[in-house]
Amino acid sequence: MKRLVTFGCSHTSGVGLKSKKDGWPYKLASKFNIPLVNKGLAGNSIKGTTHTLSEFNFQPEDLAIVMWPSYARHTVLQKDRMQMIMPNYFGVTTKDNGWIDYNVDENTSDLYYKHFYNEYDAIKTNEIYIRYVDSLATIGNFKLIHTFSDTLPTYFGKTSDILSFIKQPYLIKPFWRSFYERFPIPDGYGHINKEGQSLWADILYG
Asked: Residue 75: what pLDDT?
């Protein structure tokens, strides 16, 4: 392996941690004794993560680990930035919790979830993005591991069948669901403390 390259949302970028060295990407790269490139972006969606990964210049033998964000999020791609659209999970404004720095637009988000969002469309569209990233690793020169920040969604009583389509290795154990109750950051708006981050790195390394 040349480098560890990580993709995802705030659970990958390390929001809420006192140091980026407390995050699972840094801890895992240290275990492998290889350089880390952390491309996690707070507020990111599956679409945004796919865009970030597809634009990245991989080197031969890089190991990419994607922690896929929530299916409910959306991203509008613009020439010079990505505009994040996400539900108001905690009943606070983006200005209150600092997410205003991550291009989360409250007004656009409110309109999107009121008039355009539906769960089935979000799930099926995001399955396409994940399959696309999986195919990039199949034909590319880098290794890929899929992980998930939350449990796979269900619609009409059926769990997303994305795992039947992807060819690259995956870890189905959901990061946030597995660790938030045990390792929360106080007032961290759903983020995991450094103990939980270390445990996740151990799971990935093992």
From this structure: 92
